[in-house]
Design goal:
mainly alpha, transmembrane helix, 71% helix, globular, 0% strand, sugar transport, transport, 308 residues, ABC transporter involved in vitamin B12 uptake, BtuC
Length: 308
């Protein structure tokens, strides 16, 4: 295996892992505040559809990204209102949101199936992109990949070093105590859910405007569910999410690599690899929870209302 092939694999791994990184960062922020939103898949699809339609009709990729983020936030607010304000079951609400988003995206994008746009093109950073092995993977990507790096760094700093991150963690661990200390638990949770929706919408924009600049139903292809598993795999720690996203991204392209080397394995079986790995990871994490415990926020998924 020569250096050129390794560079191409790393390049594809980062691209494939980018939507997982974006969604997982948003899901992690939401869950650290104590809110379990299983509607990531639906928000990705709505974001991808609205982003593509806006870019196709308006002729602007920037407009498409803004529309995708706005759509993700809007859908997340539906979840927040039902799950937080109306105090419904968060698991059931999230599953319903995924079904809703899948149907809504198919309805909105029905007239655009198979249409294409000129997507985000890679931009090589001088000198840095020439670094052996990692230069092409990290410094010859498109704008949305670079944005994902910035967002990762921002979330890492906020959650580890700022008062805002401390408040979010406090709300997720014990909302009653946080409320007693004067923190607005509902506001924090609403904002965390909205951030998760924005990140899912941005991931959708990446899929339909950069990764494969076209619209097709089900373009998310289960990435929302993989991202949820990724958060568990990372033990709700920001720094581990980046590694996990690239690991799952590598698993997603592994079947193409094996086919290129001529392994006589069914392409359908190889395409199952990322989902099989997801199941294995979840089983391993549940075993760890039983024996050592996880780092999940204590109030994750539990209903709360200050007037209760």
């Amino acid at each position: 295996m020569d250096i050129g092939l390794i560079e191409n694999i790393l390049f594809a791994m980062v691209r494939t892992g980018t939507p997982l990184l974006l969604v997982a960062l948003g899901a992690m922020m939401s869950e650290r505040s104590g809110v379990l939103n299983l509607g990531q898949e639906g928000m990705i699809l709505v974001g991808a559809a609205c982003g593509f339609i806006a870019a196709y009709a308006g002729g602007s990729l920037g407009l498409g990204v803004l529309a995708a983020v706005a759509a993700g936030i809007f859908v997340s607010l539906i979840f927040a209102f039902i799950a937080l304000t109306l105090i419904s079951n968060q698991v059931a609400t999230g599953l319903a949101l995924t079904i809703f988003g899948t149907g809504l995206s198919a309805f909105l994008g029905a007239a655009y199936v198979g249409q294409t746009v000129t997507g985000f093109a890679p931009i090589a950073i001088p000198f840095l992109s020439d670094i052996p092995l990692i230069g092409q993977a990290l410094f010859a990507q498109d704008l949305l990949v670079y944005l994902s790096f910035i967002l990762f760094a921002a979330v890492f700093v906020v959650m580890r070093y700022t008062r805002l991150g401390l408040i979010i963690r406090a709300v997720g661990e014990n909302p009653e105590v946080a409320h007693a200390l004067g923190y607005k638990v509902m506001v924090v949770r609403y904002c965390a859910v909205m951030f998760g929706g924005a990140m899912a919408g941005l991931a959708g924009a990446y899929l339909s405007l950069a990764y494969t600049p076209m619209w097709s139903e089900g373009i998310a292809a289960g990435r929302g569910w993989i991202a949820l598993a990724l958060v568990v795999f990372a033990s709700w720690r920001t720094e581990r999410i980046l590694f996990g996203a690239w690991l799952f991204g590598f698993a997603s392209i592994l079947h193409l690599l094996l086919q290129g080397y001529g392994y006589e394995i069914s392409p359908n079986l190889l395409a199952m690899l990322p989902y099989v790995i997801t199941i294995i990871v979840l089983v391993m994490m549940m075993y760890r929870q039983k024996n050592q415990g996880l780092f999940a926020p204590r109030s994750l998924g539990q209903p709360y209302h200050p007037l209760k």
